[in-house]
From TrEMBL:
Belongs to the SecA family. It comes from the Bacteria. PANTHER family: CHLOROPLAST PROTEIN-TRANSPORTING ATPASE (PTHR30612:SF0), SECA INNER MEMBRANE COMPONENT OF SEC PROTEIN SECRETION SYSTEM (PTHR30612). This is Accessory Sec system translocase SecA2. One of its GO terms (molecular function) is ATP binding. It comes from Agathobacter rectalis. The lineage of its organism: Bacteria, Bacillati, Bacillota, Clostridia, Lachnospirales.
Length: 456
């Protein structure tokens, strides 16, 4: 039942700080979201890593096999190689290509994360070849083995343009740690996932070799796709935060109520009666409105006199349904036809049934302290159930209002309005369920002295 964005979760803390080797790329967003500046700290030792220029290919076949050939060449010199790919599927594919060439290697991805520490420990040794996803082993120093520095240190080969430059810099940063030598290089093609060339016939012709394309154009296309990906991710984070800001006030109110109940706050008889009166007032107003409409219809000649009996049966059915759903499983209206015409009489009668139900539950439980505990738990359950339904509804509402953008409507404004209306509806539903839980629950005290409650 708990739902919060990372941004709002972090902002709940009095103090906030963080460290990353790639934060400078996100400094504007961090200041806009959290009001925090990013400070660059110099490296402990001068950086010796060489970041070579990216290599560009028309298709994945050339991209992968060129990378395999370069890995073989480096492996023959004894220099350790770390190959970084975007997905588990790609790591498995590259591993099969290395197996075809009889190159011993380790694979580090979600399928064998258990061996992560052991694989990382050996990734910097002479002749080591490690194939890993972008997430695997991130933030871990790969220590170089004896004689590796003389060979040039760790070589990082990245295959495929990643969703953002931060991820690429993190991969490059696996080499050249703490002043060690090393180099990094990326192999990029039009078939990288970020390009989505399968949805573009023109790009597919380049990939298939039906149309010529230069490396500069490939670079421009791929980099533009990455730029769009970064902008899309940033926009999604902003939208997620905006949606959650709407929910924040509602969440604060609900959590404050829950905390009071969990801390043992008493839900007094006066409060229960007040809630019940409000519920009954809403029902009676609706009840009275139907009566007024029917009377208005008869005055205009739309109803016949013999429809009065039908109307009375309709009112009786509505009243009985309300009693069964909210007050008691026993029906005994005791109201005449004339009583049905008076909203005040109906309201007084329903409140009488509420008082009777409260007295019955109090007598059934016997102990006053146990009764207060029951009322508190019944209230808490109503609040929790209402909150869970509201969160689920608002999650679906995000997708519902998103489609309205095509109709030139302000999506966030629509979401705010409907979220507010749904919160008001939830408040009413919670109040109804509080009374239902108190009056309609089957309450027993077990031999262990504990309350056993079956809620309606």
């Amino acid at each position: 039942m708990a739902s919060v964005t990372f941004q709002n979760l972090f902002m709940m803390f009095d103090k906030m700080a963080g460290m990353s080797g790639t934060l400078m790329d996100a400094k504007d967003e961090l200041f806009e979201t959290y009001g925090k500046h990013v400070v660059r700290i110099p490296t402990n030792r001068p950086l010796k890593r060489v970041d070579r220029k990216d290599r560009y290919f028309k298709n994945g076949h050339d991209q992968f096999w060129t990378a395999v050939d370069d890995v073989i060449r480096l492996h023959e010199t004894g220099q350790p190689v770390l190959v970084v790919l975007n997905s588990v599927t790609d790591t498995d594919l590259f591993s099969r290509l290395l197996i075809e060439k009889n190159i011993p290697h380790n694979v580090l991805n979600a399928s064998n994360a258990f061996w992560e520490a052991q694989i990382i420990a050996g990734a910097g040794q002479m002749n080591a070849v490690t194939v890993a996803t972008t997430m695997a082993g991130r933030g871990t120093d790969i220590k170089l083995g004896d004689g590796v520095k003389e060979l040039g240190g760790l070589a990082v080969i990245g295959i495929g343009r990643m969703n953002n430059s931060r991820s690429e810099r993190q991969a490059r940063g696996r080499a050249g740690r703490q002043g060690d030598p090393g180099f990094s290089q990326y192999y990029v093609s039009l078939e990288d996932d970020i390009v989505g060339a399968e949805d573009d016939d023109k790009l597919q012709r380049y990939i298939d070799g039906k149309k010529r394309i230069g490396k500069r154009k490939i670079k421009r296309i791929v980099n533009q796709c990455q730029k769009l990906s970064v902008e899309s991710e940033e926009m999604n984070r902003k939208k997620s935060l905006q949606y959650d800001q709407v929910l924040q006030r509602q969440r604060d109110l609900i959590y404050a109520t829950r905390k009071k109940l969990l801390d043992g706050a008493s839900v007094g008889q006066e409060k229960i009666v007040e809630i019940a009166k409000g519920n009954i007032s809403d029902f009676v107003n609706h009840f009275d409105c139907i009566q007024s409409n029917n009377k208005h219809g008869r005055r205009r000649g739309r109803k016949k006199d013999n429809d009065k009996n039908t109307n009375t049966e309709q009112y009786t059915s509505m009243l009985n349904r309300y009693i069964l759903d909210n007050i008691s499983y026993k029906l005994d209206t005791g109201l005449s036809r004339s009583d049905m015409q008076s909203a005040a009489t109906v309201s007084d009668y329903l409140m009488l049934r509420v008082y009777q139900g409260l007295s019955r539950q109090r007598e059934r439980i016997g102990d006053e302290e146990a009764y207060e505990q029951f009322v508190r738990e019944a209230t808490l359950k109503a609040v929790d159930d209402g909150w869970v339904e509201l969160i689920d509804y608002l999650e679906q509402l995000k997708y519902a209002v998103a489609g309205r953008a095509s109709a030139q409507r302000n999506v966030m404004f629509e979401y705010q309005n409907e979220a507010f209306e749904s919160f008001l509806d939830t408040e009413k539903a919670v109040k109804c369920n509080i009374i239902r839980n108190i009056l309609l629950s089957d309450v027993k005290i077990g031999k262990d002295g504990r309350l056993h409650v079956i809620y309606p």
